[in-house]
Amino acid sequence: MKNLNVKKMVIPGVYLAAVLAVIACILLTISSINKYFTEQKDFNYAVNGLIDNNIIPVQGDENKDNQTSTNSTDKETIIRPYKAEGVSVGRYFYDFEGEATNQENAIVYYENTYMQNSGVDYKSETVFDVISVLNGKVLSVESDEILGNIVKIEHDKEIVSVYQGIDKVTLKVGDNVTQGQVIGTSGTSSINSNYTTSLHFEVYYKGTLMDPENLYTRNLKDL
Fold it and tell me: Is the CA virtual torsion 83, 85, 86, 89 positive or negative?
């Protein structure tokens, strides 16, 4: 009889424990649901998922602008030193390693003397604007009886550009110039008297003369 009474007492205890466990689970579930609905007030929903209100999303346009700015710097090139239609090459740069025909077209004849052309002569039938090929600072502004007015501009990467035989120069030594800025107009000189109006243009890279016609399409990073 004693064992029977013990069994009668154990069985209700087991049921009671099971009921309490179920109640505890229900309470935990309700608590979790309440917590979820409370926390979701601090979030916004987007098509691709949940986004924290405190996070500032990166704008696509800003990334595009930054990329464009970087690329433009990486692809900076020397532009032509004039801004006009109808300008052509009157005399090319003398390349010591070039073909004989090209060398003949790069010879300067002045006062019974033949000289190799140290730059490119651009000519036109009408006066045209002469512009800076890069950002830079004016190194010198001079006037020569034979060569005419000469402006030298220093640029980054040890590049110096020279504009010779130009008129209406308004720059002075030390002036900062931007790429494309007008620095004068085409003019005349004793050495290029056979042209109606012209510009003699030279480019030095680390003190060495370069053929300007080979630089207009080159990335400055490649120099």
Answer: positive
pTM over 0.70? The answer is no
- Residue 135 contacts residue 206 (beta carbons within 8 Å): no
Give the burial string for 69-103 (b: 16+ CB within 10 Å, else e).
eeeeeeebebebbbebeebeebbbbbeeeeeeeeb
Taking only Cα atoms into account, the Rg of the chain, rounded to an integer number of angstroms, comes to: 40
51's CB contacts (< 8 A; 6+ apart) are 43, 44, 45, 57
**Do the Cβ atoms of 29 and 37 come closer than 8 Å?**
no
The predicted-structure confidence for 32-74, as pLDDT tens digits, reads as follows 545 544 444 443 433 333 333 433 333 444 444 443 333 344 5
The amino acid that residue 163 corresponds to is: Y
**DSSP string covering 185-213:** EEB--GGGTTSSEEEEEEEEETTEEE-GG
In this structure, the dihedral spanned by the alpha carbons of residues 103, 108, 109 and 111, taken in order and rounded to 10 degrees, is -150
- Among 97, 142, 94, residue whose Cα is nearest residue 121: 94
